[in-house]
Amino acid sequence: MTARWLRSLRLSLAALILPLAGCFETAPLTEAATRGLMPASGPSEVTVLRGAVRVAGPAGYCIDVEATTESDIEAFVLLVRCRMTLRPTPVLSATVTGLQTDGTPDMFRSLPEFMRSTPGRAQLSRSGDPRDVEVLEATYADGAVWLLIRDEGNPSSFDETYWRAILPVAGRVMTLAVLAAADHPFERDSGLGILQTFVRRMYAVNAQG
């Protein structure tokens, strides 16, 4: 493993993660939290980036149309429960980038170590400050990177600790997240289970097209 190869890998990782910066998600999350995360009456599925990617959550989740934002190179989609429940339930988010990938696992396998670094934590941070972020867990499994993160920059309505996955879907790099209400944090395995279901759903709906 040469020094040149390592430098090339770091540059490639930085290029891969750059569009996934947590700060891109801060404004729509904050806006949604400010108006109240009520059940959504939106559709169960939406297409983004000129129809390149379909976004859908697990059963019972709908698209919060007001919180969905899109540019030429990336899209953010918020999903909330379609119906009121007895206690606050986690909300889900999908950030889809214009960065194309063939899904080669080598690059994704290298991400867990990078995400623990200062540049990696800066990209995850809602504020852009790596000091706000602690990566509690970072693993690669089943073609995706699984991250348990504590971010002091999360909007105050949400718990600081949340789950995130980075994965290739429909030839694009995307990140999925599960966020709990600040006054109803989820247990580790519960949050991971929801994220795993979200990931499977995303693979399934995009395989259909």
UniProtKB/TrEMBL annotation:
Q: Where is the signal peptide?
A: 1-26
**Would the keyword Signal turn up in this protein's UniProt record?**
yes
- Keywords attached to this entry: Signal
Source superkingdom: Bacteria
The name of this protein is Dihydroxy-acid dehydratase
